[in-house]
Design goal:
6 helices; 215 residues; alpha/beta
Length: 215
């Protein structure tokens, strides 16, 4: 049975100097790259939880949720559901802004450089935690420029294939890949993202070679 540690607490000050307590996931939970979807936001957006520090007028204008994927996908759909609830609760429009590209780094950079006024939120996947390991340099600091606020959803990845493939189980797929190296390929949504790395981990664990990635 996998041991799960309790979330860690860390204190940070918001833009006004007020101390705010936030929760961080345990290392074991954060390490599961196949199941985590994180709702992160810039430091000053803690106004959602510490509104008193920003005065009684917050929010006084629309709030942006920046999504690093195109409209119509799962992350975008979730952002729109969250935005609708936030708008209902806060009494201000919540706008979803799609900024796809560069493995989510375009959106993350835009949020990191936005004014620290509590009106710009980043909804991202765990790919943001992967970026520092696969990019030589980033225009933002994943730890310093963002604070994780909550996990919105845990999801499962599935492995599917054409019914014409001569494999109906994972062991049969592994056997086929080993028997016919170079004859199989797989599709995923982008190089270096959690889907790609999960499949590469599967290939390594199964000691199979020659399966090409198609993005």
């Amino acid at each position: 049975m996998r041991h799960r540690q309790a979330p860690r607490k860390r204190r940070r000050s918001d833009a006004s100097g007020a101390t705010v307590k936030t929760s961080f996931p345990s290392d074991s939970a954060a390490g599961d790259v196949t199941k985590r979807l994180w709702f992160t936001l810039a430091l000053a957006t803690l106004a959602l939880h510490a509104g008193g520090a920003f005065g009684q007028t917050y929010p006084s204008k629309p709030i942006r949720i920046v999504v690093p994927f195109v409209a119509g996908g799962a992350v975008d759909a979730l952002a729109r559901m969250v935005g609708a609830k936030l708008s209902e609760s806060l009494g201000q429009p919540v706008i979803v802004e799609n900024r796809p590209g560069a493995g989510g780094n375009i959106a993350a950079d835009a949020v990191a450089k936005s004014p620290p006024d509590g009106y710009t939120i980043l909804q991202n996947t765990n790919g943001q935690a992967i970026s520092p390991s696969i990019y030589r340099s980033l225009p933002f600091d994943v730890v310093r420029d963002f604070i994780p606020v909550t996990q919105l959803v845990a999801s499962q990845l599935v492995l599917v294939a054409s019914p014409k493939l001569a494999a109906t189980s994972v062991p049969e797929l592994i056997a086929l890949a080993k028997a016919k190296p170079g004859s199989l390929n797989y599709g995923m949504t982008g190089v270096g993202n959690p889907l790609h790395l999960t499949m590469e981990m599967f290939k390594t664990a199964s000691a199979i070679r020659g399966i090409a990635a198609l993005s």
